[in-house]
Write a structure and sequence with these properties.
Elements: E1 7-10, H1 16-27, E2 31-36, H2 39-49, E3 54-58, H3 66-78, E4 83-86, H4 101-129, E5 132-136, H5 149-173, E6 176-182, H6 188-196, H7 220-231, E7 242-245, H8 257-262
Parallel strand pairs: 1-2, 1-4, 2-3, 4-5, 5-6, 6-7
């Protein structure tokens, strides 16, 4: 058991990647506190994994006292806190014409500022336990798609924060800070989003090569498996690092020949 006797706090842990991480943490011997916005989903996850292993707190992480309350929940429920996973995210489309001030502030508040405040609140516990932080970013942090402008900006900010704190906090407090940048993941919300956009119910069964050389996208469980290394003591002194979890390189990508052929001049 790679996380035996560890206490893990996971924001956005009721569904998708967060739920998969919580499930894997419990399987590896950890006690977990998850956060989310839908109380029913939180209760269902506790029922699934057992209240002796997991507790939940339904709260918006941008609320003033949310970080403090979540850390206090960990200590009250399981006596300590060793690992913080900043997974909660606000994913929404916007571009140069549709990104207004209120929208930009909201997406930055959830995706970049809240993780910082969570780390601040957790630092006394993490420092005492020589714990770690794992931030869940996105490959969109490297530039993003035209219609993911504000979201990409927020994930870029998160990535810079990871590199900054991963150095400064490890030197001063012995707390590692790392990040993973997942590519396209088949979460419940992604399935719902594509359905609302008018796509077929089984759209994910036929993904074009340009998006997925493997002919499929990632499962939340695959992302959770990758997270385990960064959360465990096996990570050793590695800090301030960002790992992309994608099927193709972000720089120097080779486009499929079928795509190249269809776009050649006649």
């Amino acid at each position: 058991m790679r996380l035996k006797d560890k206490v893990v706090l996971i924001t956005g842990g009721y569904t998708g990647i967060g739920k998969a991480i919580a499930t894997r943490c419990v399987a590896e011997g950890a006690k977990v506190v998850v956060n989310g916005l839908e109380e029913e989903r939180g209760l269902a996850l506790v029922a699934e994994l057992g209240e002796e292993n997991i507790a939940h707190m339904t709260v918006d992480i941008t609320e003033d006292q949310a970080p403090k309350k979540l850390v206090e929940k960990c200590v009250a429920q399981f006596g300590s806190l060793h690992i913080l996973v900043n997974n909660a995210a606000y994913i929404a489309s916007s571009n140069i014409n549709t990104t207004d001030a209120d929208f930009a502030k909201r997406i930055m508040a959830v995706n970049a500022i809240a993780p910082l405040l969570n780390i601040q609140a957790a630092l006394p516990q993490l420092s005492k336990n020589k714990g770690c932080v794992l931030n869940i970013g996105s490959i969109n942090a490297w530039g993003g798609e035209p219609d993911l402008l504000a979201y990409s900006m927020s994930k870029g900010a998160l990535m810079t924060m990871t590199r900054n704190l991963g150095d400064s906090m490890f030197r001063e407090y012995g707390v590692r800070v790392n990040q993973i940048n997942p590519g396209w993941v088949l979460t419940e919300k992604e399935i719902l989003n594509k359905k609302e956009q008018g796509m077929e119910a089984d759209w994910y069964k036929e993904i074009p090569d340009i998006f997925a050389p493997a002919q499929r996208i990632f499962s939340p469980e695959e992302i959770a498996t990758a997270c385990l290394y960064w959360m465990s003591d096996e990570c050793g002194p590695v800090s301030s690092q960002v790992m992309d979890l994608e099927q193709f390189p972000m720089i120097g990508r080779n486009l499929p020949k079928t795509w190249e052929g269809s776009h050649k001049k006649k």
